[in-house]
Amino acid sequence: MDKATLQQIEEKLMQAVTDIMSLDKNTVTAQTPLPELGIDSLGLVEIFVFIENNFKLQLLESGLTREDIKTIHSLACYVHTRL
Amino acid sequence: MSVIDYLIKKTTAAGNASQVVLMLDGQVEEAALRSCLGRLLNEFPLLQGKVARDYTLLPYWRIPSKYIENDLNLSVYHCEDLPPSKSALSLMEDGSNRPFKRENQHLAFHLVYTKNRQSWLAMTFDHRLLDARGAEAFIDLFQQYFVNNGNSMVTKDVCLTAPADLDNWKHKFSSGKTINRRLIALSKTSIRRLPVPDSDIKRGFKFHLICFDQKETKQIYENAYAQAGYLMEMPYLFATVTQIIHELFEKKGISGDSYMVPVSIDMRSAKDIKKELFFNYVSMFFFQIRVEFLKNRKILLKEIKRQMYEQVQLGIPAKLMEASALLRIAPLPILNRLFQLPVGGNIASFCCSNVGKSSYRFPDLMGTKIKNIFHMPRIPVPPGLGIFFNSFNGQLNAIITWLDGLLSDKEVDELKKNLINKL
Fold first, then answer.
1. How far is CA B273 from CA A22, A74, B46, in A?
2. Which of B5, B11, B25, B186 could make an S-S bridge to B16, C-beta 3.0–4.6 Å?
């Protein structure tokens, strides 16, 4: 299988965050800071589990920095570099 | 929720209730509050419902065909008239420990006029009808109702038809099996818990409130992000609580291999709360913390995050909700026993939760500025001890809850000091 593009990862993550947080799709952008989307520790862990299930990547205790999880875009970039 | 209510009533007289308290920077007018609140309660006959169980054995929330109008249970206190030993918090404590007047009454309000022309307004609520964030959302709805001069339109979005959730049996049995296996696995070690004082008297709960200002709260969150990772407030708060309670247990000579801690979590998003305001949507994580993990904060945080991740991956919180829907078919006394079987009656060492940001969206209530909002939950006995967090307007609150007689004043003081120092 071809490696997913950054855009594909970003789109998948946008959809996941929309579903996990029951948000209106129009209110979620890739540049919105995660806390502004209401994401807390439980929400973040749910996103990590989604990433493991979909991209086979374990992010818990992987050395993620605050900058890496600042927005959906920065998280998508991190996932993309790790694939 | 019904079984927990039954269990708490058996041991502490009042049921599975909690209290949301608003500290106000001014005095709300009693007559206006009474009038507007009374009218809002009339909009929801389900507030006078009760758990009913007909021939089918399946319990449901029966809404009365005839309901009492203006069924407002509001107590008003003036601190100037009270002895010096009675503080606003102790009045709230009394309110929290007082059973509802009738089987189908689930809300009680307490208005305390404190010195310096300030006031506290509290709502005691039955956990079968509202959970913590639902209670905040109900006060939020009241504020909207007040601002709109009692216009019924503000209540139209609230969903009043919670599904019975008793379909899809095969799936629920499968969830029940997973939860059962989990509980059996957790019960393999000896769990530490405090001995509940023997008494014929049904004891109430005591509360100690710690409020952190915005600057202190910011620092606590920065500590959490530095030690546990970005946005990992809950594991950080839980780790700190577990360590200070471990110190208390060690001093009291309580032995055992591990601590078992149910941490309640809300299964709704902020958007869902506005619609699904009534009934309880809280589920739980079960953490088992082995004593050896408590020596090192870094190892403890790693373990808490690992267990949290594993439970989300296995869908434990959702499965627990599904399994509890299945369990509702059993009669309460049997369910009470079943509930305690897997862990030999030692349900938990203590309880903990972080309600998170408040669902109340306004800076004021009836035109009076809100200084803070906090919760005073009653908890099952055993364990009879819990530490709960919530935040309002960038201020973190911690409330220590314990069964009267379980801890001495000195021990509570020490818990408070350690919590402040270690957060």
1. 11, 29, 17
2. B5
Higher-confidence position of B20 and B355: B20
Give the side-chain half-sphere CA count within 13 A for B252.
21
pLDDT per residue over B273-290, tens digit each?
777 778 777 788 999 999
CB pair distance less than 8 Å for A40 and B356: yes
The predicted-structure confidence for B292-336, as pLDDT tens digits, reads as follows: 999 999 999 999 999 999 999 999 888 887 776 665 555 555 555
Given a cut of 90, is residue B150 above it in pLDDT? no
Cα–Cα dist B165/B168, whole Å: 8
Assign domain B186-316+343-356+379-422 one CATH number from 3.30.559.30, 3.90.550.10, 3.40.50.300, 3.30.360.10: 3.30.559.30
Three-state SS at B21: strand
Q: Provide the 10 A C-beta neighbour count for residue B160.
A: 13
Mutate to test the interface with A, among B233, B287, B309, B352 (most CBs of A within 10 A): B309
For the stretch A23-75, pLDDT in tens is 888 889 999 999 999 899 999 999 999 999 999 999 998 889 999 999 999 99
Q: H or E segment at B126?
A: strand B118-126
CA quadruple B48, B51, B52, B56: dihedral, nearest 10: 150
B234 CB within 8 Å of a chain A CB: yes
Reference B104, options B55, B161, B65; nearest CA is B65
Contact criterion met (CB < 8 Å) for A61 and B305: yes
Tell me the shortest Cα–Cα distance from B160 to chain A, in angstroms: 20
Nearest CA in chain B to A63: B229
DSSP string, B191-247: BP-PPPPP-SS---EEEEEEE--HHHHHHHHHHHHHHH-TT-HHHHHHHHHHHHHHH
B304 touches chain A (CB under 8 A): no
Q: CA-CA distance, B208 to B416, in Å (whole number)?
A: 8
Angle formed by the axes of helices A6-20 and A41-55, nearest 10°: 140
Contacts of B408 by beta carbon, 8 Å cutoff, 6+ apart = none
User: Residue A47 and residue B308: Cα distance in Å, rounded?
Assistant: 13
Cross-chain residue pair A61–B225, CB shorter than 8 Å: no
Q: Does B274 touch chain A (CB under 8 A)?
A: no
User: How far apart, in whole angstroms, are the C-alpha atoms of residue B354 and residue B389?
Assistant: 4
